[in-house]
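Worked example 2:
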Amino acid sequence: MRLPAAAALLSLVACSESTEGPTPKLEGLINPLERLVTPARVCNAGGDAPGWRLELIGSGFTPLPRDALTDTPSVELPQVTLSGPSDYTLPADHLFFARSELMRMDLPTRDSTPSSQLAPGAYTVSVTNPLGGTAKLADGLRVVPPPTLASVTAPQGFSYGGGSPLVLEGSGFRADALPLITLHREGLEDQPLFSVTVASDARIDSEVPPATPEGTYDVRITNPEGCAVTRPQALTVAYPKLGTLAASPTSAPASSDTSITLTNTVSGGARPFSPGIRDVYLVAPVKADPGQRVNIPLREVRFVSVTQLTATVPTCAGFDPPPVTDPQCPSGVVPGGPYTLIVADPSGAVGEVSGFTVSASLASPTP
């Protein structure tokens, strides 16, 4: 408790004609991570070193000054007790008085110091003032276990051009509290999974977003009340491959959009082009943001055969819709390179060809 608050309490007690304290009123318990959830939920694991920070809302919370006339005055705070599947009284150094309507407490967990792993279930919360008077809030707190993650599988494999279904199995999943699921790989930003359905307390259905970089990822599940679990190296993203790709021409002027032909030479287990809608990108910077390479969709992509596609590289238009009338091509591709072309086939296979360049010259492109 802050010293000014302690001084105010000392003054109040000194002026009081009675040593009998008011009976508190307890209106609610809040987990700041889920302020709108009633009753409050808290995990019996994780948290900061002291545990999870919770807020007690009510009125009449009245600490009692001790040894006020000595050189070492102190303040005795109201006592907070939890009763339910197991009973627990909060240590005094885990309680913090803000005002008569608000107290905060750090609830220890399995992983805190000191540790105390409450059994899951519903708890009655009691607040008792030092001079007497107790307020109780039945079912004021729900203690929940942390989630576990036993397996992560992609039953249909991975598709570069579309979402890849993902199944996560474990325990502690709740349909009333959608978790945050992220893929973590060293050197990349964490990738959140946006499609999440809790099928049961033991299964979550999700999907890996299109164009997620290949590699092995840690998978992390975080429940809204704060508890999280990470399964290291749980998911390896790998896409089926097209054959060896070649582009013709391999360069284009920045002053106009350019038609190219992509050839797919198939060998071994590589896949040919398949009919259907596909995505082809040039990975390059545009003039609006020259320091960042982005996927620029090619236009007029046409399937010619299982070994050939044609498309238009928007070196002048960039992301702008045609026609572009400004000869300076202000939204076009930054001249330079080498840049990479990526083909996402309808079959889910992916292929790329590097070495494509964009010239500032107005000359025609050369093969």
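The longest helix spans residues 3-15. The helical segments are 3-15.
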